[in-house]
Amino acid sequence: MKQWRPTSSGIWQGRDDTAEADNARRLFQTVTCSTTFCPEQQAGDIALLGFACDEGVKRNHGRTGAAEAPAILRRALANMASHVQHARLTDLGDICVAQDNLEEAQQALREAVLACQRAGKRTLVLGGGHETAYGHGLGVLDAFPQEAVGIINLDAHLDLRHAPQATSGTPFRQLAHHCEAQQRTFRYACCGLSMAANTQALLDEAAYRNVTIVEDLRCLSSPAEAIAQLEQFMAHLDRIYLTIDLDVLPGWEMPAVSAPAALGVPCAILMQLLAPICRSGKLQAVDLVEFNPSRDRDGQGAGVAARIAWQVIRWWG
Ligand SMILES: N=CN[C@@H](CCC(=O)O)C(=O)O
Ligand SMILES: [Mn+2]
Ligand SMILES: [Mn+2]
């Protein structure tokens, strides 16, 4: 796979406490890394993939920098504790974009995800703008052709844009078209949506596609009601693909994105929404997208993003 590269040696590093106790381990000590892309030969329950891509955000007229996210997020995860309950991670490297060819990179991500899922692993993809979701989503749909696969997007934006080419604003419109072509039902929920950040045209498209919308205001005023709405959506699914656009968080908590949210759903509430999704027994794939390290402040955003990823891994185990 020409778009593939292994993770640089030296990324998974941290503080070594094992002289204190054998179980005083951190993720850098329990992750397995591979120098070739062979998911079926790797131990581990969760395949970690990076999508090193700026092209989707660039085409969507946003602030680029998301291509650096996989490396920065791995570094931020490396020093976090690895408990016995954790699902085990295997790092299967990055998919990169060659010569601005986003479509080719999304296809490479789709194939990599499918290979991981077929090898019995769940997939955790870090990086890129939300164009990551087209490749990741296709891979998950391919892996379970006969099952009801639902997408839960934690995001201020619907990303159902109509555009002449793929961007970070189009992935769910593209997945809807894919489902149509395959005569599959498109099952999509967007949670944390800001009405102020989505045009009437996008809301009309969402209504036409029967999208479940949980507004940011609902998440803030009544997390329990937001969870009930998500549980109703999940009840009809066999598998869940969860995609976390970090601009769902408030800008003060997550400055490191292309489009920081004025209001947003704070991490503490987001965790309450994540718990039932992660514990549903249906969660098959997760990604964290739109993280832009060049806009971070003192590593704050990286820390928040890594904590969310860590929590998913913990609850997934
Ligand atoms: N990934 C999607 N991003 C948003 C960006 C919004 C903005 O730049 O304000 C979108 O396309 O709607
Ligand atoms: Mn998005
Ligand atoms: Mn967004």
From TrEMBL:
Catalysed reaction(s) here are: N-formimidoyl-L-glutamate + H2O = formamide + L-glutamate
The protein's name in its UniProt record: Formimidoylglutamase
List, alphabetically, the InterPro entries matched.
HutG (IPR005923), Ureohydrolase (IPR006035), Ureohydrolase_dom_sf (IPR023696)
Instruction: Enumerate the NCBIfam families for this protein.
Output: hutG (TIGR01227)
Would I find Protein transport among this entry's keywords? no
**Which one GO biological process term can you cite for this protein?**
L-histidine catabolic process to glutamate and formate
Q: Please state the gene responsible for encoding this protein.
A: hutG
What keywords were assigned to this record?
Histidine metabolism, Hydrolase, Manganese, Metal-binding
Q: Which family does it belong to?
A: Belongs to the arginase family.
* Binding residues annotated for Mn(2+) 1, in chain numbering: H130, D155, H157, D159, D245, D247
Its Enzyme Commission number?
Answer: 3.5.3.8
The UniProt function text for this chain reads: Catalyzes the conversion of N-formimidoyl-L-glutamate to L-glutamate and formamide.
Note on how the cofactor is bound:
Binds 2 manganese ions per subunit.
PANTHER family in alphabetical order: ARGINASE/AGMATINASE (PTHR11358), FORMIMIDOYLGLUTAMASE (PTHR11358:SF35)
Organism, as annotated: Mixta theicola
**SUPFAM superfamilies under this entry?**
Arginase/deacetylase (SSF52768)
MF (Gene Ontology) = agmatinase activity; formimidoylglutamase activity; manganese ion binding
| Lineage, uppermost ranks | Bacteria, Pseudomonadati, Pseudomonadota, Gammaproteobacteria, Enterobacterales
Q: Which HAMAP family match?
A: Formimidoylglutam
This protein's record includes keyword RNA-binding: no
Pfam family membership, one: Arginase
Residues involved in Mn(2+) 2 binding: D155, H157, D245, D247
Q: Which cofactor does it need?
A: Mn(2+)
Q: In which pathway does it act?
A: Amino-acid degradation; L-histidine degradation into L-glutamate; L-glutamate from N-formimidoyl-L-glutamate (hydrolase route): step 1/1
Write down the superkingdom of origin: Bacteria
Cleavable signal peptide: none
